[in-house]
């Protein structure tokens, strides 16, 4: 069973590279908009992550649907699943920012990057096997 799981993951390596590319480009867009919201427009980091997260949803959904997973599935059904997962990630991101930035005093950009890195692995598997 372990060998079968390893073979399946190995066969998904090209998708993971595309997923990583989408995520990496999303990271730059995410960090750029977060910087603009917080450092240029002086929005509180917790509120900025909330606003920013909503903007990033469409970017990530459509690139992963068509580029990463090349899905032809019913978009609205996939979007519902994606939004459920995103809702979970959204709540975690806000709590993460609150805890690491406001309670521990860690820089808001570093707190955000660490949150994104932590969510990469679980999101790929859930996207691949449940969303798309």
What does this structure look like?
Helix content is 87%, strand content 0%. The protein is built from 5 helices and no strands. Helix 2 (13-40) runs antiparallel to helix 5 (108-131) and helix 4 (75-103) packs antiparallel against helix 5. It is globular and about 45 Å long. The protein starts with a helix and ends with a helix.
What does this entry show, briefly?
This protein is 87% helix and 0% strand. It is mainly α. The radius of gyration is 16 Å and the shape is globular.
Explain the layout of strands and helices.
Blueprint: H1 2-11, H2 13-40, H3 45-68, H4 75-103, H5 108-131
Q: Which key phrases capture this entry?
A:
single chain; 132 residues; mainly alpha; 5 helices
Q: How are helices and strands ordered from N to C? A: HHHHH
Largest sheet: none
- Give the helix tally: 5
Average per-residue pLDDT, rounded, comes to 91
Number of strands: 0
| Helix-residue proportion | over 70%
Radius of gyration over C-alpha positions, nearest whole angstrom: 16 Å
Low-confidence stretches: none
Our estimate of the beta-strand percent is under 5%
- Summing up helix and strand content along with how strands pair, one would put the structural category as mainly alpha
Q: Based on CA inertia axes, which overall geometry fits?
A: globular
End-to-end Cα distance, whole Å, is: 24 Å
